[in-house]
Amino acid sequence: MRPIKKIFQCALALVLALAAAPPVAFSQSSVCYQIRAGETAAQLARRITGDARNEYQPWFQIIDSSSRSVPKSQYDRIRRGWRACVVKESNEGVVQRVSQLEAPPAPELPAASTPTAPTATTVVADVLRPILGVDLTLVWLAGLVVVPWFAWRILDHYVGRRSTSVIVMRHFAYRFVSEFERPLIQQPKERPVRSQLRLRPARAKLEILLAPGRGRRYPNLSDHRKNVEYDVGRVVRLLADESFVSDPLYTQAGWVVVPFRFKVGQKHTGVT
User: Would you call 180 exposed, middle or buried from its count of C-beta atoms within 10 A (0-12, 13-18, 19+)?
Assistant: First the structure.
């Protein structure tokens, strides 16, 4: 049991060393916006997420000038220069289970056996063992524990960034469609515009598809191209989100496609 104990001690030391390192690659993914003068928390939540009630969601946080999270009970006293962030909550923890290892009994060698030629791995181990003073077998076994843990953290970080991008893109698309159809609404229950959303987070692209509602002919590019281009420009200027850059419009299967490119600008300094 003594060699097994040394194996676990070596693996535990490597895991603790990685966990104590600065969490640059494993920090929470967040997208932050600057707070404007005179803006309340409810107005800020509506501008960023499209719904003022989201100010009390756990993934919506306000950060002060020293990068500390402001308690939600103090959201009525926010200041200009602070930031509002949409974050992805990390997992509470990871439970790692290590199964017990039993040392196999050493095989009995015949009294007279022909010596075999040493392999390359054996030669390297015999050369490095006296130099490093560490049994390389313990290092390999420790690597079997650390490498999967390290790969899982990288995967979790990638998924976190992707989820945050999807949240931001969906909020932008919701606000875009709401503002685009607002001047066209004549009855409260009427939807003058049909819409769809296509997201490509890996390529940082999204496409908002618009089509006339029932009994409508607008929007379409065949008869009203200039009007549609004007309305798209009006909504983009109104949202004033420099992270989304619009590309030329085009038609696909009866839909007006409004493409955007998502880029990390000065508003998103919190993206990690």
Answer: buried
